[in-house]
Amino acid sequence: MTDLIWDRPEPSERRAPSPLSRQRIVRAAIELADSAGLDAVSLRKVGSALDAGPMRLYRYVDTKDELLTLMVDAAYAEIPAPAGATWDAVLSSIATGIRGVALRHEWFAELLGGRPHLGPATLAHGEAALTALRATGLDDLGTVTGALATVNVYVIGAVRKEVAERRAQRASGLDQRQWQHATAPYLLRMFATGDYPAMEEWVHDAPHLQADEVFELGLTYLLEGIRSSLRN
Amino acid sequence: MTDLIWDRPEPSERRAPSPLSRQRIVRAAIELADSAGLDAVSLRKVGSALDAGPMRLYRYVDTKDELLTLMVDAAYAEIPAPAGATWDAVLSSIATGIRGVALRHEWFAELLGGRPHLGPATLAHGEAALTALRATGLDDLGTVTGALATVNVYVIGAVRKEVAERRAQRASGLDQRQWQHATAPYLLRMFATGDYPAMEEWVHDAPHLQADEVFELGLTYLLEGIRSSLRN
DNA sequence: CTTGTTCTGATACGGTGTATCGAAAGCTAC
DNA sequence: GTAGCTTTCGATACACCGTATCAGAACAAG
Which segments carry the region annotation Disordered (chains A, B) (predicted)? Predict the structure, then answer.
């Protein structure tokens, strides 16, 4: 229907030194998002980071959504190529690769899974993932598809939740203990109603895992599940 | 630190027939989000749906974010109580329960995992999940925690991606075939570069699964993984 | 009736994405 | 070199957003 961004060429640079390009715009937007959060990415701010008015950007990008899409693709380019001798090593490297980028660029986690992406870097990532998986001897396309999709989906959710918690903590003081301190009184009052005995016990006694441990654990579950489905 | 919403009482209703309440506001907001998308939820629009100015809402809610949080909690209240004779049946019912709500209220998927929620309905959901799980004899808190967290995270990602795709399709015409039609030329051109042979083959030959099948498949993997970790 | 408290709506501020359009700047053709 | 055409730019404007401020209305208590 409408042309995808990737389809449209950059505006020509007949004019002498137009020091602007999609790449530079995206880079500026990413820097802004990295340092001030995704909400700080506005066409005005990105523009003025490049000494340009907001309207100038519209030569390179049709819409703000397109800019975000380009940012996502740029982030995909940062994911290291999946590698590993076995299929589970490959899947695991994919997962941790995506997580790494998301922890470096928190806005990436917010955008992940928000809409389908088909940029060149995203495609390249898919390509690398597929070939790496098949190099391990896993050549049933159905299985590969299912496994990849599941791992991707898991990573989206895990990373999103992890980043969300991290931001919430940071928002209310610096410390994690501080965050617990802030919500504790409320939780205690709720528990005092007696309506949530299991939750109360859980908060009390459940082992408190680090974020990476939770991530790793879920991933282990997932891989083990795929493994055992391969045996049939 | 700052008071949580759940802490603050509703404004008193001394004044005769103040036909407003947090509940009514949240309900109006949800209706708006259901029918016109999350972006359509603005204090002005919610207000005028209740014959009120935007400022009036600030008696009941401190911030728009709070309204969104209340919406999420209300959505949690719609999740049917988890049930099942075995722990995997319980986990599975949790997963499909959340997915059901997210498909009914797409904005829920967008908000899921966005920030930590601690509303009464959310707590009640957690309570029900925990007790249902323990009723099946699964009483190691560590295992329960890990399993629940993993399933939750998986559902967040899965639902988010599913809803995103569904919305993208709907955005470009009604039909799914139409969406493929829109992106097909672009993909073909990308494939023509020869840079993505594996992806090309994959698009061609991979079995095309329905959304529910993908969801169910991933869930199966996950449960099987947990199951086999229980055996050790 | 007066006083005090509680609530409301109007107004306003600073921000957003983007449509419109006149002016400038560059290239092409003569 | 100059006229004309095409491409880009920036100013301005519009509609909308979340929310701070504050005068005054509506009620309760004395």
Answer: 1-20
Nearest CB neighbour to B168, from listed A116, A145, A160: A116
Q: Taking the model in full, what pTM does it have?
A: 0.91
Residues within 7 Å (Cβ) of strand C: A 14-16, 41-45, 54-55, 58, 63-65; B 11-15, 18, 20, 52-53, 55-56, 59
Supply the ipTM of this predicted assembly. 0.90
Q: Under a CB-based contact definition with an 8 Å cutoff, are residues A20 and A60 in contact?
A: yes
Residues near B184 by beta carbon (within 8 Å), at least 6 away in sequence: none
Structural domain for A40, as ranges: 5-62
CA of A46 to C1' of C27 (A): 30
Which chain A residues are Cβ-neighbours of B204 within 8 angstroms?
none
Distance CA A121, CA A123 (A): 5
pLDDT tens-digit readout, A197-208: 999 999 999 888
Residue with tokens 């570069």, as numbered in its chain: B193
CB A84 within 8 A of CB A137: no
Unique residue bearing structure tokens 């380019």: A77
Q: What angle do CA A41, A152, A208 make, to 5 degrees?
A: 85
Question: Do B52 and B159 fall within a single domain?
Answer: no
B121 and B39 within one domain: no
